[in-house]
Design goal:
Blueprint (H helix, E strand, L loop, with lengths): L2 H26 L4 H4 L15 H18 L5 H25 L12 H13 L19 H10 L11
Helix pairs in contact: 1-4, 3-4, 5-6
Amino acid sequence: MTVAGIFLFLGTILAMEAVAYAAHRWVMHGPGWFLHASHHRRRDTLFELNDLYALIFAIPSIVLLLGGVQLGWGSWAVWVGAGIAAYGAIYFGFHDVIVHQRIDHRYVARSTYMKRIIQAHRLHHATSGKHGSVSFGFLWAPPADRLKRQLGESKQATVREPRR
């Protein structure tokens, strides 16, 4: 382990939040809506079409790890590939397990940070279409009052009825 490698790994995890934000906002809620729409509907099965994004986003990590370990690209590729994979694991834990409860658990958010992330993602899902959504990040979110204001001011948002 090198100090530079650890910084590269951690920097990659941070950078992936920006990549994920951009992909979510301009790809998933744009031309990739045909896959992502399944995530904005009620899910009655274990998997949804949106899960294909996990496979798509894993490809760069796999290629970098393979290149760094087997093809002589250098340790930088291993650190970056591992950082992308770590972001994917963190995303899965926060988004799929904690927020969407795709795995049964008894976790209750108590910290201000976790409450903010969960509420922001729920506000993201308050809209029924690809336009007008708020909060596209996964590990960082604006305050809920700002998101609520954005939803209320949006001319594109179709806010769904609350579930009962």
